[in-house]
Queue: 3 jobs
Job 1
Amino acid sequence: MRPRSKRFKINFKSFASGSQPSSGSEVTISDSTAVNESPTEGGIDSITGSLIKAWGKKGMGTFPNSVQDFAGQLEAFLLDPTHISGVTYPQGARVQLNGIHYEATTSTSSTPPSGDWTSKLFKDIQGVTSADQYSLWTNQKADEWISSGSDPSGLIKGHGCWDSNLVIEDNTYHQTWVHVKSTTDAFDVNYKYGGVSTGVYRGLRCLVNGTGTGAFSSNDKHGKSFDNNIAEYDGSDWIVKYETVDLWRCAIIDEGRVYEKSSGVWSDVSSESQANHCFHKAKSISNGSGYNSTLDGVGTYGDNSAVEYEWEYTAFESFTPNVLFTSDDYYKIGAWANISFPFPENSYKSNTLGELYGNNTTKKEPATIDVNNMHLTHSGNVGFNNSEAEDLGNMTGVQFWTKFQWTDLAGALNLEGDFKMRCTLYDTSDNVVIQDFVIPFNNLWAQINLPFSGFSPYRARIPWSLGDIASNIFVKDLEILNVFQWKNIKRMSIQWHESYDEHGRFNPTLGSRSVSASPIGTSTIILSIDGFCFTKPLLAVTSPNTSRVIEPPSMQFPDVSNSIQLSQIVNSQKEIEQFQHKEYTITTPGQININYGDTFFLNDSIIIDDSDTRTADSGGSANTIRLVAKRIIYKISKNSNGAGNFLRTILGIKRII
């Protein structure tokens, strides 16, 4: 016979260590006969970390951080759980019901809306306003982008842009760029930090168009003459960047004009056929609505967030004899946008040089984008113990939202799409890389991601010329020997590439779509840029430590894509790293007023430096620590006279709250 099976049921009764007795009922021991820090069983451990950092998912971090932080805050807000009827929610709990978000003002089981709940908008909970939002480098920053383009003063050619052909090295044709032209280093102080002559930054260039004076009056440290050559500041001295010869050309960004050297003298040739091919005058550069329609209580976070470049041209009038290849109207056929570093790179308009990137007036760095991005923050700070440490992390590409709006004079949309665009990067050594992309629809926002691995080397060709057939015939591609310096990205342009021919030259012929598909009359193109940033791994770092920096190894969370979540992780870990294990062995006269697992207080003016309360590590009585009884031993002894002692020994350990 099979034995009859039996079923047993075990009931567990548990409690949180240190939860008993209730607050205010704890015993305080101040009459111990012996106290020590249990050196053999733990004692008082050292703090293991005061500066905590963690790496999250690759490509989900951004520089500047505003893009990643806004996305993380919005995701957290949208993931507020749906309210469940009958459940008791603690004070501060957040829920959503019928599309409205609520926060509990007290512990409650009521259903919102009620007096126990208050409604919350995104801006109320996250503390983000339209003035401090997702696109730090474009939101109300039109002036900064103007300063990155040509003629930032607007007094010579008018605000405009440069394109992918600032630098040309095509057989005997040489063209490069400078910020300004001058015979002295005491030139326009808008290009210098603090508006003073000593505020020169690395990479600043000047065409010395004559006999140099001041710092240009003698040879540079390599023995080269500045006279009629191109000078560059290398971070400590002015040096001759290029020794030029006749027929060299130089694009002066400050003026938006191209100069040529002839008989040893530099002259403006911008009015000659195709000579000013790399500069384009905009109708206006301003701020407009961005892609983000999230409400901010007044309007949306996208209000005034985008930088808008407005271009206007009349296609067929641009091909009349008095305009063709020479007039500013001819060079307006297309659309462009520019950014350069430091950002902004001068103090024109309402700007402060380097205000958004490179605003360390002592170091005058960073002056270029370094994709390794582990050396300096945007203000030139070093290491992780500073408020800008989350800037750091190897950059992987460029990301932005863009909209291409092509309309006729009456404002009607052109029925076109798949606009071919080109992004161009320049380094400080005049190496150039490009990456092409497409904006699929007219007047609709598109997110563009351009990984650095997708850029390819580019060498511009001699400008197209109607009268010089030989210059338009190419037998083979140009050989590119120099390697792009990814640690020294100086300039970036975005352009509608359909005004350029297959060799990359500005050449809006009658067959190009910028002309052939242009509506009758005047065309208007608005190229908008919003949410501009560089992508990198997500990084969270705790607040700077001003006393003793203890920096444990970085934590790795490759699956965390939300910056708010990663920030919560490092701040929680900091609490753990800063919690000191404290263990005391206390001997008292025999009493049975503390049970195993109870919270109690120990007061001792000699060995205890804490001032604990029930719920905090400060604010209580001096020389008092909060402990949990982890072991209690009672001992009764007897001597020869029959009388003895009744003693209690408690092992008390500090518990993290």
Job 2
Amino acid sequence: MMNPSNQENIGYPASPPPPEDMFPSVNSGVSVDDENPGFDQGHSLPNVDELKTDVKARGGSQVNEDGEAIGRRTGGWVVWLALFLALLVIAVVVGVAVAATKNDTTPSTTNSNTAAQTFVPASTPRPTSAGPAPVATPAPAPTGTASDTRMGEIASWLLDQGISTQADLNEENSPQQQALNYIAVNDEYIMNVPAGSKETPEGYDFMTRYVLATLYYSTFGSRWSFDLKFMQPISICSWYSVLQYVDMTTEYRGAACDQENNQIVALFLNQNNLEGTLPKEIGLLTSLKNLDIDLNKVRGKIPDTYQGLRNMENIFVSGNNLSGSIPSWISSLTKMKNINFSHNLMTGQLPTSLGSFPNLEGLALDNNLFTGNLNAPFNSDLVPGLRNLEQFYMENNQFVGTLGDNFMKDMKKIIYLDISDNMIGGSVPSHLFELPKLFVLDLHDNEFDSMPNQFQATSNLGLLALQKCNFANQQIPPSISNLRSLSHLDVSQNSFTGEIPSSIGDLKNITYLFLAQNDFVPGTIPSWLETLPILEELSLKDTQRTGTIPEFFGTANSNLILLDLDKNRLTGSIPNTLGNLEDLHILLLNRNNLTSTIPASFANLQSLKLIFLEANTNISGSLGTTFCDNPAFVVNPIIIAGCDLCDPLVDCCELCCAEGKECNDGIHVPDLDPIWQLGYQRIFFTFRREDYFMKEGETRHLVQVDALPGN
């Protein structure tokens, strides 16, 4: 893996591809959950036990195990008459007691009673626990009239402080209503209703517990992969777990608090099967610095109330179903260091204010549906911020237009710049190659039609990806050799003309060189390739190469993993030296004019995964003897070749072609876009989570350890 610096907090992929089921239909219907009807907004079906209870209530019939009514016994009317008389007596006694209570109680005119009259409480399912947790000694839970009074007081306080609205609290089974019911009735931790505002320490703590409960119900907490001790009768500062991987490494997830004042500073809920939407109440947690809900199923827009998160530094919400545009108010969060909205369904143009963060180090908006031009928010002459930006990921969107002369010109700290897979045209700005710390420049799969005539010497650029653009009728500048640190160069699938520059041979650090599918002048395989001793992946596919395959493949270039010479005009024999490539995975010699016997040395290619030999003039030998019938091969490579090479073991070949003919339908063609990702992993900020959960030198033993399947 290429890494230009030793950064302690770097090593986290910014946009890992989400699982296939990461993006279910946004308009999918409400699921039916028989065990938790409260989460189905009233649409659940009764299970067997509920059916039994319902039948009894309606008719008193006995039921069998399937919930079917059984006929009542003769004489049951006597029992019913007795029950009716008993209930009549009880009703009279209760009525007298209620009347007496009303006469002895002075009516209250406080906001608490008003709230109690307008609020409609609902039953709240108790959360399940993924494991043991430290349990505080709770006070007795309120019951009866005391419970109703407490609920009214809490509802009144929440409304007075503007924390939730009356409509949300009254809505049947809303997250806010369920959270209120939990705090008032089911929470055995029993915090006192604050006497002051939410700005006081007591009020903020109380509000935080309610907000986290709202988050739990808003994201269907009972379905989380790990409950992280949420909703347990302990301080919210203990609502976290230590999850352990099979390799014994651990990861902290859950809520983390500041060690000095015990206010919440982080929520790490990544990869925890969160669904639903983000509640607007999160915006009230002004002490929150870090929010990580990567790789979940959260949908909807970023609530406008989140502009109140004035201390927010890092927000990771990649790999969800978030929609809507990036709000212009986001620039008011001036302490922001990292923003990762990758792999969502967000749309619209980027606000100009996005370029004004003074402390921003990482910005990842890739794999969304954003549109517009990138110049406005990232014009160094117009935006005051982004001078500390190191990582910039915008690939796989719908950006158009051109890159201006001032696009990111003064962002001297930038290391990773990826705007690939868009519709950006015009010239590639030459000043991008002058950025002193730039290590990765990925512009591939755009509409660029012109590249710089002269490359300035730079000491740091290691990866340059320009494949699948529109560089028609121009040559690769010989000054490409000035990029001395290049280890990855991909200019394939363009329309470059002229000679392949021999100056590429001066790039002694090159490991990946893809020149495929260009209109170079016909010529032999360049001899200067012999001077590249650490070359691992080489593609000269469809570049009008003539002559023979040189023998330095397998001697000077002994580290080759991929050798692609497909669709050229090569003649002569296949050199025996190719059998020296012990690490070779992919060998493509198809669609040439080779006349050769398969070298016996090919029996040494025990790392081979794929070999294409079809559509040549005359290649002879037996692939069955070389590969398929060779006990040295634990797994046979995928082979496409002439049928005479596959005989007598026809099953040896994936595809068997008539002599000199092509029969590969393209299914097995290796992907040119870009194989380098197998060896290069995108870099992004990662949290040292333990710093948020433990003081220096302190070890907390009362944390649960849950096994995770893998790292």
Job 3
Amino acid sequence: MCRIKKSVGAVLAAAGLVFAQSAPQWQNLYPEYSGLAYGAGKFVAVSVDGLVRTTGDGTGWSQVFVREGGNSRRIHSVAYGAGQFVAIQRGSSYLHSLDGAGWGVDPMNANLLWKYIAFGEPSGGWRFVAVDEEGYTAVFDKDGWGDNNDAGISLNHAAFGAGKFVAAGDGVKATNANGNWVNTSIPSSSKIAVVAFGGEKFVALSRDGGNAYTSTDGSTWTSASAGGAAAGMADMAFGNGKFVAVGAKGKGCVSGDGTSWTAFTLNEADDFKAVKFGGNAFLALGAKGSVYKSSDGSKWDRLAGNSVTSYKQIVFGGGKFVAVGDSGVSVSANGKDWERKTGAKNLTGVTYGANRFVAVGDSGVVISSADGNTWTDHSQNTGGELFTSVAFGGTTFIAGGRTQGVAAQSKVVVYTSTDGQAWTNYESNDLSGGWSQGQYIASLCFGNEKFIAAVMGVGATKTLRECGATGREVGKYWSNVSDLPGEADGYLLGSAVYTDNKFVVLGTKITGEAVVLNSADAVSWQAFPISSEEIKWVRSATYAKGANIIVADSGNIYAYLENRWIQQGKATNRHLSTIYSGNNVILAAGVNGAMLYSEAPPTSIRHTPAPRGAASSKGVMSLERSRRAPAVTLSFTPNGAGTIAVYSLSGKRLYKARLSAGERSVRLPERIMSSGSLIVRYSGDGRVLNQRFQFVR
């Protein structure tokens, strides 16, 4: 079997760099969980956000966002064995960690649709087996990753038991004594969802939940009707004498013998992706952030719920946060614990004023609430307007948007109200300010006694309009904001906020390049300098804890510090639509339930992880042979004392030494060279860093 070998220089190789984030600035409240493992006394959860979370009992999660070369990762499955966690993603790289906190990134053999990974210890030694939707499998053992093998059927799940691996999908395959995949008595016409081993037998469930299969050797299977089983299962685990499976729409089932099943429902609004047993309990995770725990697989306790599908805007008022999006309204008293409320869907904006929340959305939707819990419908059905934003100032609510239909043929829409309940409509020909066909209000804000509208649409580049908040018929009389700086030329201005006693307006070009304007009075404007072409598709802004902060697509957050925009630590790769600061916390939110929470001030430290495959001299540590004994050298000078520890890939500690403050290098015993591959850990100076090295012979 061919194995991947990597070298740097003549003696040693850095087999991937490791990134750790011991105290993340942003907490991801609702990761898109995709996989779960248990080992070393902890659960490790991975997500398609590129986020990894660890916990001992399902509460008190800590997290790390794994990045490589500045790009986020979509992680799909994780397993534990041989003293390490190994995670796979849809691509040509895998992740590995000794503790779930620091993660290394190394290449696999091919860019495939890796779906699931399982660990086992057959007679030939420990190994991880990854399976792929197109039927490929790959083995990782002490020698690295072997060649990809084609099992001949589409695969989506795997398990180990009775000395062999079993892979399930369009049928079931099992490994023989040579590690090759062979047919079993379950044909490819049988669509298998999940498989697990426990109680000295394998158990598999069909995708429709109608059939259960059992086997003591993984080759010969007995089929039976799976009474009480659920359809669409995504993962299955065994513990405390029970098989437990979870899957789509919060459905799950539990069985003591693998044939007779009892169905249960967790959270119907979430698709559950993973379940594992550890610490004498089952833990189940949903794709929208749900976390459930059970000691017996029958009675479940909710540890975390799921969020709305997407967020468009957040506001704070009356002692609570209100967020709106495609799935409606969510409310929180502290910014961390959110509860969905009944009300209209497809909401695009929310504001607070006159002791009332007002939210707007598609098809003329307007709803209001005095407490955020109970909402009243005031929808405007005159023309099926598409509201895009709402703001309150003085004594008036203004809702803006456009008429339905082809955007280029639409007309601007403006509605006003003094109480958020009774509304007055101004048609486009009633409005001053030169509103052309195809132009509309993309965003509204209020400050310094005036409303500002960011205008988009046909011919609306570099277009802002303002409206006074006093006098008769507020919302009817608009004028163009002039003297915008030249840096705004060619930009569509799509977001306007009033924060820290300033207007901040964001604009983008059709290619995504960004501009950020600010003004205290909407008369004299200046542009924040943006020197990085990487800052693109900016969506919203706020001022918090001493800095202007903007959010953008792909989970990017930037703070203006030291006269430059500095990227902040990431916690998701989902697009962010809004950011809000209030009640001493910062919230950033976006599509697919993305909701980030922070109490920390922005940091001026640039987050620029090294690219995959970088030489060891450019990593956090280098390992070189001088004379007879190798030496580990840090790439930085620590301010405090620390330790260097060396581990085998199985997790056995081989050596440990102390470093004093200012000391960067430590000599290792010569016997270390015989270990083949090593993982070196530095602990100290407020950080924990891991790096893997491999000897080239």
